[in-house]
Write a structure and sequence with these properties.
Helix content is about 70%, strand content about 0%. By secondary structure, the chain is an all-alpha fold.
Length: about 425
C-alpha cells in the first residue's frame, strides 16, 4: 500500500515541478521522473518479489526527495527562468581545422587499438558468440568483483581521452545539426565527429557492462535539450518529447537484448529484466533499512568512495573496498534482485538521516546553480561550452539517482578529474593548434 502511496506522491511532486519550472529537464523534474519510473518498475515486480515497502523506508525516501526538491524550487523562483532571445550573431556552427580533428582521431584510434589488444589478450581466443559471452562473464566477474586489472593503469588512464573526445564530438554534432536545421542548410563533414563516437561504443562494452553507454545516451539527450532551448529559445514540443520517449524504448530494448554480449546470464523476459534493473534499487534499499547497520572507521567509506580510493592508492589511508551492506539481495520469493540501493543508501550508511538531508541539499544547490547558469547566462558561440559539457556529463547522477548514488562516490574522484582535464586539453588543442 505504501508503495502505491509513494507513487502518487512522487507524481504530484513531478506535476508541481512542471508547473513551477515548465521544464521536464529541470533538476527537480529529473529526480522526480527518476523515482517515478523506479517505483513503477518496482510495482511491476511486487508479486514476483513478494515485496512490500516498509514505513521507515517510505519516510526516508520522502525526506530525501523533499531535501532536493524544496531547495530546487527556491532556486527556480530566485533565478526566474527566462528564455531570452539570443543574438543570432552569436549562434554559429562549431568548426575546427580538419587536420587537427584528424590528428585527435588518430590518437583516439591508437589508444583504442592498444586498449583492445590488452582486452582480447585477457579474454583469450573464442570460436563463436556463445564462447565469447562465457568469457565476457568471467572477465566481468574478475574485473568488477575480484578487482583483477587486465588493462595497465596508464592505458586505462589514456582511454579517458577517447571518452572525453566522444563527448566533445557528440556536442559538436548536436549543435551543428540543430544550427543547420534552424537555418535550413545542409550539414557536411560529419565523419570526423562520428569517428570517435563509433570508437567509444565498443570501448565501453569491454568493461563487461553497458553502464557507460547509458550515461553517454543520457548526456547526449541533455545536450540536445539544452542546445535546442538555447538555439530555438523554447522548450521541446510534445512531438519531440514523444520521439525521445520512443528512442528511449528502443535503447532499453537494445539494453535487454545485448545482455549476453557483456556476459549477463539472465534468462528473464525483456520487461522483467528491464524493470528488475531499474526498479531493484527501491527493494534493495528497503531491505537495507531493515538490517542492523554496519559502520566503519573510515569517514564516508561509501559516499566518498572515489576520494577514499585515491587516498588509499597514495597509502594515506587504508581502504577496504568491500562494504557489508552492498551485498546482492534476494527477494522474499527467492528471486535475485541485485546490489543497487538508490542514491540514499550511501548517504544513510555513512552519515545517517542527517546525511541524507545535508547531502541532498548540497546536490540540489550544485545542479540547479549550474543548470540555470547555463540557461540564463551561457551564450552560444562558435566554440564548445565547457559548462554545458560538464553538466551534461554528470547529469546522469540525477537521472539514475533511483538506481544508485554517483555524484559524491564517482564524480568526486581522480577518474572524473582526469576526464574533465582531457576535455579542457582537447578543447585547447582544437582551438589553438593549427596543422599545415
Amino acid at each position: 500500500m505504501l508503495l502505491y502511496l509513494m507513487c502518487v506522491i512522487i507524481l504530484l511532486f513531478l506535476i508541481f515541478s512542471l508547473i513551477i519550472t515548465k521544464d521536464i529537464f529541470s533538476p527537480p523534474s529529473i529526480i522526480c521522473e527518476s523515482y517515478l519510473i523506479a517505483i513503477l518498475c518496482t510495482i511491476y515486480n511486487v508479486k514476483l518479489w513478494d515485496f512490500e515497502l516498509h514505513l521507515n523506508t517510505f519516510f526516508i525516501m520522502l525526506l530525501g526527495l523533499l531535501s532536493f526538491i524544496i531547495p530546487s524550487f527556491l532556486m527556480v523562483k530566485q533565478k526566474s527562468i527566462k528564455n531570452t532571445n539570443i543574438d543570432k550573431n552569436t549562434i554559429s556552427l562549431i568548426k575546427y581545422p580538419k587536420s587537427t580533428m584528424m590528428l585527435l582521431n588518430v590518437i583516439a584510434f591508437i589508444i583504442f587499438v592498444i586498449y583492445m589488444f590488452y582486452f582480447f589478450k585477457a579474454i583469450g581466443s573464442f570460436s563463436n558468440f556463445t564462447e565469447f559471452s562465457q568469457k565476457m562473464e568471467i572477465y566481468r566477474e574478475n574485473t568488477q568483483f575480484l578487482g583483477v586489472e587486465y588493462i595497465p593503469t596508464l592505458v586505462n588512464f589514456f582511454s579517458k581521452f577517447c571518452r572525453a573526445f566522444a563527448y566533445i564530438n557528440i556536442y559538436i554534432l548536436i549543435n551543428n545539426i540543430l544550427y543547420c536545421k534552424f537555418y535550413k542548410i545542409k550539414i557536411n563533414n560529419i565523419f570526423n565527429n562520428l569517428f570517435s563516437i563509433i570508437l567509444y561504443i565498443p570501448l565501453t562494452l569491454t568493461s563487461g557492462a553497458r553502464f557507460d553507454l547509458i550515461i553517454f545516451f543520457i548526456s547526449s539527450l541533455i545536450m540536445f535539450a539544452i542546445l535546442y532551448k538555447k538555439i530555438y529559445c523554447k522548450n521541446l514540443n510534445i512531438k519531440k518529447v514523444i520521439k525521445i520517449t520512443l528512442l528511449i524504448f528502443v535503447i532499453l530494448l537494445f539494453f535487454s537484448q545485448s545482455r549476453t554480449l557483456v556476459g549477463r546470464t539472465s534468462k528473464s523476459d525483456t520487461m522483467t529484466y528491464i524493470t528488475n534493473y531499474f526498479g531493484g534499487g527501491i527493494a534493495c534499499f528497503d531491505m537495507y533499512m531493515q538490517d542492523t547497520k554496519v559502520k566503519t572507521d573510515i569517514l564516508g567509506q561509501e559516499l566518498f568512495f572515489g576520494i577514499n580510493k585515491f587516498l588509499g592508492q597514495l597509502n594515506i589511508i587504508s581502504v577496504n573496498n568491500e562494504s557489508d551492506s552492498m551485498k546482492f539481495r534476494i527477494s522474499n520469493s527467492g528471486v535475485l534482485i541485485g546490489n543497487i540501493y538508490t542514491g540514499f543508501r550511501k548517504m544513510h550508511h555513512d552519515f545517517g538521516v542527517a546525511g541524507i538531508l545535508f547531502f541532498q541539499i548540497i546536490l540540489a544547490l550544485i545542479f540547479n546553480k549550474l543548470y540555470y547558469s547555463i540557461l540564463n547566462k551561457e551564450i552560444l558561440k562558435s566554440d564548445l561550452s565547457l559548462k554545458i559539457l560538464i553538466y551534461s556529463s554528470i547529469i546522469y547522477c540525477l537521472v539514475l539517482h533511483s538506481f544508485s548514488e554517483f555524484f559524491y562516490s564517482s564524480v568526486l574522484s581522480f577518474n572524473y578529474l582526469a576526464i574533465f582535464i582531457m576535455m579542457i586539453f582537447i578543447k585547447f588543442v582544437l582551438k589553438k593548434v593549427r596543422i599545415r
